[in-house]
Amino acid sequence: MVFAVAISLPFVLLILLAVGLMWGTDGARADETAACDGTSLVEQLATSNPQKLAEARAEAAAVPNGSGLLWKVEKPGTEPSWLFGTMHVTDPRVTKMPSAAQAAFDAAGTVVIETIDILDPAKAQAALMSKPELTMFTDGTTLDAFLDEDETEIIKAELARRGIPLALVSRMKPWMIAGLVALPACEMARKAEGVEFLDIKIANTARDEGKQLLGLESIGEQMAAMADLPMEFHVRGLVETIKLADLMPDIMATMTGLYLEGEIAQIMPVILAAGPEQLEDDASGYAAFEKRIVTMRNHIMTERADPILQAGNAFIAIGALHLPGEEGVVALLQDAGYTVSAVR
């Protein structure tokens, strides 16, 4: 699922869909949540350019296992398990699981998320402190050393708009800053209030109900995946993400709407079809990003999920972006001898 597209849009989408759970919450739960605005780009394209929308949908239709959030995982001699695609956000429409997924969760004896490190802020902080080079410049370097004058001003202005002096975050790796900037204000506000995003809600409910709770990765492994990519890629991604700031409410509305419909493979093509055409194409940079952040982790998560699935009666919840594609988790489980079927 590699698209020859501008680097910024895929960077934003993967930040939000693939690694959004790195920015967890540790505050008290809030009863009131910030409202999100934004208009789905599906609606915009349907009016302004229906042909482009049709082409995006056709592209998505060619992606294996691109439609569906809940999958039944079966193998002879083992009790069935379930694979559920999540979105790492606090939107109440997302955090309320579909009835079929809720029933599968309720019946499961074991619940699995990407990483359980996020449930213990102290443990997560300790993990990050043990390898500060994954998230911070530790050699005296600062972010502005990688920026030209115009890029510095772009980043400084966007951070100032959010009340953050550049000097305060200048030792943070650019992908960390991009992860903060990419999240719409409403999502940041809800997380600041302590509203649980879907993965944390699933995990905390499982723990409260006495279910066995497991993770497929450590937070250190997730951070390392991002840190492995070239610094030039991260810097460009940060700058271009900031340039898309005004489009972020619409991007989030589009992602959320398609997620709720279970049309995961449509998310990238639809947003790219509606995105700014003037941005520079960089297929190779995006391909490297997707391989390290999505594909390689798909293989790791599948390998680690196998013994859990062999035990049966498990509910495995991972980011929905990991499900589709020839090397998505659904296909990899099928290659491993499981029957994996979408639940409509």
Describe the structure.
It is a single chain. By secondary structure, the chain is α/β, with parallel strands linked by helices. Helices cover 53% and strands 8% of the residues. It contains 17 helices and six strands. A six-stranded mixed beta sheet has the order 4-3-5-2-1-6, sandwiched between helices. Strand 1 (70-74) and strand 2 (81-86) form a beta hairpin. Helix 2 (41-48) packs across helix 15 (264-274) and helix 3 runs antiparallel to helix 15 (264-274). The protein is globular, with a radius of gyration of 20 Å. The relative contact order is 0.27.
Low-confidence stretches: 1-8, 18-34, 278-284
Radius of gyration, in angstroms, nearest whole number: 20 Å
End-to-end Cα distance, whole Å, is 23 Å
Specify the biggest β-sheet: 6 strands, mixed
State the helicity in percent bands: 40-55%
Structural class: alpha/beta
Separate helix tally: 17
Which H/E pattern describes the elements? HHHEEHHEHHHHHHEHHHHHEHE
Secondary-structure blueprint:
Blueprint: H1 8-18, H2 41-48, H3 50-61, E1 70-74, E2 81-86, H4 92-95, H5 99-107, E3 110-113, H6 121-130, H7 149-161, H8 166-169, H9 174-182, H10 185-192, H11 198-208, E4 212-215, H12 219-227, H13 231-243, H14 248-260, H15 264-274, H16 283-311, E5 314-319, H17 329-335, E6 339-342
Parallel strand pairs: 2-5, 3-4, 3-5
Antiparallel strand pairs: 1-2, 1-6
Helix pairs in contact: 1-13, 1-16, 2-3, 2-15, 3-15, 7-13, 9-13, 14-15
